[in-house]
Write a structure and sequence with these properties.
nine-stranded mixed sheet, 18% strand
Length: 285
């Protein structure tokens, strides 16, 4: 191959990386399981201070919108922003909720996310042993359950308005409690490890509709006690807060005035929380 052709190919690769792999990236299939995909915001330079923030979509799957909403935060705080996509009906049954409860058939959604984080680290030559995780609505389901399973992988968790909650109650089975965590997931319940992760819970004060979150017998996720945490999202999140605090986990609770169920309207509070934790994390170094 001539030197001129080689230089042209190198230039094409560089331009392609700038266009598709930095800033607001294209959408990629997960190498570990191509049924799932993600997009990123990647800051201009990656160094040993670059962190990762994962923003988990809800039932509407607006993952690109969440990536874009966190892009400015990522740029000015030197963070890669990862926005996964867990589609509806991966098993062909139209299930919208599988990712919320971590397991769907043979799929472990927590492990899919960790695979994504690992391959991004490989691509950008920066290991992300810990990352921040935000999720709203269905993403709030995912966020607090991921925290229960993998507290050692997070440097912060922001739990936004989940429709149903897993309280830290050893007398209840998953998903309403954590009594069978080891037999179901192969991990121990570790409240002391969870207590090391700064936690925010955020919900709108006017988020009071119950049509989507009331479990009924015969429903896919029905079990005894499914509605015991309260009727509305604020009530259920307060119940989750109480269960966290009962085992020594501090919670920053942000109740947003005049806000119904609107994930985009809570993001200023979430970014402030992540920014505060990130500043403390970097100062500690």
């Amino acid at each position: 191959m001539s030197e001129a052709v080689s230089e042209t190919l190198d230039e094409k690769q560089v331009r392609g990386k700038r266009l598709y792999d930095t800033g607001a990236t294209t959408i990629r299939a997960c190498e570990a399981d191509p049924r799932f995909s993600y997009c990123l915001y990647v800051p201009p330079e990656i160094d040993d201070t670059t962190e990762m923030v994962v923003v988990m979509h809800g039932t509407g799957r607006s993952f690109v919108a969440y990536r874009d909403a966190f892009a400015e935060f990522g740029r000015w705080n030197n963070c890669i922003v990862l926005a996964p996509l867990f589609p509806v009906g991966v098993l062909g049954d139209g299930n919208r909720d599988g990712f919320k409860y971590m397991v769907e058939g043979d799929i472990r959604y927590d492990e899919i996310l960790l695979a994504m984080v690992g391959e991004i680290g490989d691509r950008y030559k920066r290991a992300f042993d810990r990352f921040a995780l935000f999720g709203y609505s269905g993403g709030g389901h995912f966020c607090h359950r991921f925290l229960i399973l993998h507290p050692d992988r997070l440097w912060a968790a922001s739990i936004g308005a989940p429709g149903s909650v897993t309280r830290l109650d050893a007398d209840r089975s998953w998903w309403t409690g954590v009594g069978d965590l080891e037999s179901r997931f192969g991990v121990e319940f570790r409240p002391s490890a969870m207590a090391a992760v700064p936690v925010q819970m955020v919900v709108g004060a006017a988020d009071t509709e119950t049509w989507e979150i009331t479990h009924k017998p015969g429903g896919r996720h029905w079990m005894e006690g499914a509605n015991d945490a309260g009727a509305t999202r604020p009530e259920r999140l307060r119940a989750l807060q109480a269960s966290f605090e009962a085992v020594g986990i501090a919670v920053r609770f942000d109740l947003i005035p005049n806000m119904a169920h609107d994930g985009m309207r809570c993001l200023d509070a979430v970014k402030t929380f992540f920014g505060d934790v990130l500043a403390d994390r970097r100062n500690a170094r």
